[in-house]
Amino acid sequence: MCAMTDEAGKIAIVTHMHPDGDAIGSSVGLLLYLQSAGKETRLVLNDNCPESLAFLTSGLEDRIISYEVSHEKALEAIRESDLIFCLDMNSFGRAENLEDALRRASCPKILIDHHLSPDIGCFDLVFSETAISSTSEFVYHILTGTPSVGGDPGKLPVKGAEALLAGMTTDTNNFANSVFPSTFRMASELLAAGIDRDAVLGSLYLNFRENRFRLMGKLLSDNMVITPEGTAYMIIDKDMARKYDIKEGETDGFVNAPLGIKNVRMSFLLKEEDEKFRVSIRSKKGVSANKCSAMYFNGGGHELAAGGKLYKGKDIPGGTVAEAAGYIEKHTREFLSGSIG
Ligand code: 5GP
Ligand code: MN
Does an H or E element contain 302, and which? Predict the structure, then answer.
């Protein structure tokens, strides 16, 4: 692939905490390619892969190490690597518990990412571009550009190509957002190479558990608040998550729905955890989800899709759902009054 990979014995791929379709898809795509090139490669995750994405990692269980399962094995895998790829994350901090090990690792590190504000000083080689749909698409173009693939995606491992298609599909919300000419080119080339898109879509979108839809209905009918300024927000507290038996990754996509409402300019989904609320933000053109997250929600991401955290104690002293709601209303009122559109 390049001199750095040629020289490396052991390679680790690391991606962001709470991995989504693009994080897992791009990682599996790269992992299978490197393995097919004879490289001993492991994917080191902070958390377990969500069940909804397990179809991408089946058969690779011995290649994947998660900090959630074994702190020591995950840190050791990073320590022992000769080369580390960081995918779909713009800074080491996005790998949460793996951050220190990444900082300390003396081997070369390569970033492949499409988020704003990459921490380029931490890497020896940087592939960072925001005008691309997804890290999966980025990996696709890099791999198809290697001499061994020579522009023919039929030479990629089939499961790897499927994973890249899945990652691009989820990050674009199935071709609805962040789609570029290069994205359609990727899709077209993969279809021409015989990749089974129907199977990929079936695994992604026709395979949810019923409880996910029950919760979505409950949120949209009883929980969603829309402010006069055009902020929509929904908050899943711990009781609700328990009652509906919600697993990691199962509410992905919920935050997009309220953006479909005419006067909504920004949509929030909050999920309560012990010490914080996890925040997902989506916005319409003219409103920067990234800026709003950086200013008020300890996070960032993309212009129209970002995430962050609202800390109990620090941001909302009592840590209640009512305070979280008040915080969103107050800060988005300020924020939207300064945004165009
Ligand atoms: P989601 O709302 O789907 O979790 O995340 C939307 C986008 O924001 C993704 O590209 C994700 O990587 C990014 N993101 C999510 N949470 C955080 C965060 O806490 N910090 C930063 N910097 N980005 C985040
Ligand atoms: Mn991504």
Answer: none
Residues 191, 240 within the same domain: no
pTM over 0.70: yes
Q: How far is the CA of 111 from the centre of ligand 1 (A)?
A: 17
16 lines ligand 1 (CB under 6 A): yes
Gap between the Cα atoms of 336 and 199, Å rounded: 41
Q: Which ligand is nearest to the CA of 136?
A: 2
Q: How many domains does the chain have?
A: 2
Cα of 290 vs centre of ligand 2, distance in Å, is 14
Q: Which atom of ligand 1 is nearest to the CA of 279?
A: 2
Torsion angle of alpha carbons 292, 293, 297, 300, nearest 10°?
A: -160
Residues 57 and 125 in one domain: yes
Residue 246 in contact with residue 214, Cβ under 8 Å?
A: no
Instruction: Name the closest-CA residue to atom 14, ligand 1.
Output: 307
224-272 pLDDT, tens per residue? Answer: 999 999 999 999 999 999 999 999 999 999 999 999 999 999 999 999 9
- Same domain? For 12 and 135 the reply is yes
120 contact partners, CB below 8 Å, separation of at least 6: 111, 126, 128
Cβ neighbour number for residue 185 with a 10 Å cutoff = 13
Residues 184 and 299 placed together within one structural domain of the fold = no
300 lines ligand 1 (CB under 6 A): yes
